[in-house]
Amino acid sequence: MGYAARFDEFGRPAWIALTVLGFIVFWPIGLALLIFSIWSRKMGYWHNHDEWHQRAERLRDNMCGGWQSRAERREERHARRWARHMSRHSSGNRAFDEYREETLRRLEEEQTDFHAFLDRLRMAKDKAEFDEFLNERRRRAAQGPDVHPPGTTEA
Q1: Which among 39, 83, 105, 108 counts the fewest CB atoms within 10 Å?
Q2: pTM of the entire structure?
Q3: Alpha helices, DSSP H only, in the chain?
């Protein structure tokens, strides 16, 4: 059993301790261990690459006000392709095929309506925030150029 396999039994803390010890003894050894542990993915940061992308997309979506993420758009395209694919292939039962086509058409309409509703909702929120900004600005302009003494901030 090799040294790497022995340290793998103890997991990531053993690799971290070995790397720190390598830096203490002689820094090139520590650097070599650090590069090896990252390259061989011993540290475990890259085991679930998709999870990191999903977290980053969620964070971006939260920061951007909930706009549709790239993954959601990709999923929608995939769903539409799958629906077109399924609608082209007959199941052998015409009644079921007609029911399926009608259901898929209705679901696509509902999805389109829902996205339009979300767009209107976002627009209304943006308009309300902008109106609030303009009203606050008008109130400040009506109060005069400098209501507060210099050096103080508005609460």
Answers
A1: 39
A2: 0.35
A3: 3-10, 12-25, 27-39, 49-63, 70-88, 94-143
Q: Are residues 123 and 78 in the same domain?
A: yes
C-alpha to C-alpha distance for 64 and 149, rounded to whole angstroms: 37
Whole-Å CA distances, 94 to 82, 111, 112: 19, 25, 27
Tell me how far apart the alpha carbons of residues 93 and 143 are, in angstroms, rounded to a whole number.
75
Domain co-membership, 79 together with 117: yes
| 57 contact partners, CB below 8 Å, separation of at least 6 | 69, 70, 71
Cα–Cα distance between 23 and 32 in angstroms, integer? Answer: 9
20: domain range? 3-39
Q: How many angstroms separate the CA atoms of 127 and 65, rounded? A: 14
Round to whole Å and give the CA distance between 42 and 64. Answer: 34
- pLDDT bracket for residue 69 (50, 70, 90): low
Averaged pLDDT score across all residues of the chain: 76
